[in-house]
Design goal:
binds ligand JHZ, 6-stranded mixed sheet, 17 strands, 393 residues, 7-stranded mixed sheet, globular, single chain, alpha/beta, 12 helices
């Protein structure tokens, strides 16, 4: 299989490496390049960062940090119970338990390689394996707990490098009539929204349905339903069943999604060459916006020190030259500095009165943030966003 590089986003740090000071020694950088796989049409990073550098005992992201996601996971838990009535559920990448905690009435198991997070869910009395998801682990879990009616994984499968093994292990841990539900950012939406910030060290892949179908061909699993979601800037919730299970019919929307992607040209290399050109233009115009605001001597902060924003800041070389500080609600990020760009992150206590502009690092939560920041907007405060194109709103 051939891999062709189509976009070079330059040198990038580990997005989870929130720094204790602004002048770190030996900060790790790698080259962030994107590739197109000629056979499977999979879009991936060109070089992967070693997993232990990213997923460790200092993992900062908390899935429950936004009201939008807390609600989304509670709603999904209800829906899964109604639709599949599982007696057992396994979550790959259980983070702080925001989803799996809703299944305390059945056998609920978490897999979470970041020990600080696994400790959190263990304290919540959820059996959690602080390990990477592998075939070996699936065998171990099967032996101890049996196979599962539902396996769920949000924003995690795209982080695991060995996809063949990942799906083989899922197939191995699923009951014959079981369902595997995967949720990850949609490649189509990322291309349409020009959200190149979906690419960073952890996101080894951004999946299209086309590629998912191709890479799971030999896994014994097949897609039988898809839901398009607004979460994380546009995601797909993809339902898999075992090929041998004829209980679930394959929904027409699977074909529809594949057709929509084909019409967009998701399978064509040319599509990514065009994307790359647009990304470089987006960079230029975002820098112009920052420059023109700074010329007027206005104060800019960042809102939401997301992992995504690390790609924007480091690609566009935006640092303290433009952004005084970030505000964020996550205690594990505040008091630290953004990786690579070294901007201080302050605890969120509302937007200070002297702030004129806020760069939306968490653009995917724009609605939630705009509702919260009515006072800032009312007094003339503006947001800067780069999605779907750089602008002031
Ligand atoms: P959010 C992380 O990426 C990493 P990030 C990971 N790789 C992934 O795939 C996604 O999550 C799912 C803050 N915030 O969710 C909280 C406010 O301060 O977009 C968070 O730090 N105020 C696993 O980091 C950040 O923004 C607010 O009102 O790109 C949001 O991070 C809101 C709504 C959020 O994921």
């Amino acid at each position: 299989m051939k891999k062709i590089n189509f976009l070079n986003l330059g040198k990038h740090p580990i997005t989870n490496n929130f720094l204790p000071n602004a002048k770190p020694k030996n900060e790790f950088f790698y080259n962030l390049k994107l590739s197109y796989h000629t056979e499977t049409k999979l879009i991936s990073l060109n070089n992967f960062v070693p997993p232990k550098k990213m997923f460790n005992n200092r993992y900062a992201h908390r899935a429950s940090a936004s009201m939008t996601m807390r609600q989304a996971y509670a709603d999904l838990a209800k829906k899964i119970k109604k639709k599949f009535n599982p007696r057992s559920i396994l979550e790959i990448g259980s983070n702080d338990g925001v989803f799996i905690k809703h299944f305390s009435d059945v056998q609920n198991i978490g897999v979470e390689p970041c020990k600080n997070l696994a400790d959190l869910t263990t304290k919540m009395k959820i059996k959690t394996y602080d390990k990477f998801w592998t075939f070996q682990l699936s065998k171990k879990i099967n032996k101890k707990h049996g196979k599962f009616d539902v396996i769920y994984s949000a924003n995690t499968i795209s982080h695991i490098h060995k996809l063949n093994e990942t799906f083989k292990a899922i197939e191995n841990s699923l009951n014959v009539e079981g369902v595997f539900i995967l949720e990850d950012p949609s490649l189509l939406k990322s291309l349409q929204k020009l959200s190149y910030d979906q690419f960073y060290d952890e996101h080894a892949y951004v999946f299209s349905i086309t590629a998912l179908k191709n890479i799971t061909k030999k896994s014994g699993l097949e897609i039988f339903n898809i839901e398009a979601l607004n979460t994380h800037g546009g995601s797909n919730r993809v339902y898999f069943k075992k090929i041998i299970n004829k209980k679930f019919k394959i929904s027409n929307n699977v074909k529809r999604h594949l057709l929509t992607e084909k019409k967009y040209g998701i399978h064509k290399f040319k599509t990514y060459q065009i994307f790359a050109k647009k990304v470089n233009k987006s960079k230029e115009s975002l820098i112009k916006i920052f420059q023109s605001i700074k010329k007027k001597k206005k104060k800019i902060i960042g809102y939401g020190a997301t992992y995504k924003s690390s790609t924007v800041l480091n690609f566009c070389k935006i640092s303290k030259n433009y952004i005084n500080y970030f505000v964020d609600t996550t205690p594990t990020k505040t008091g630290k500095f953004t990786p690579g760009s070294h901007i201080p992150i302050k605890e969120y206590k509302g937007i200070a009165d002297d702030v004129d502009y806020a760069f939306l690092g968490a653009w995917n939560f724009k609605d939630e943030i705009f509702k919260k920041e009515k006072k800032f907007i009312k007094r003339g405060g503006k947001f800067i966003t780069h999605v779907p194109f750089p602008k002031i709103i």
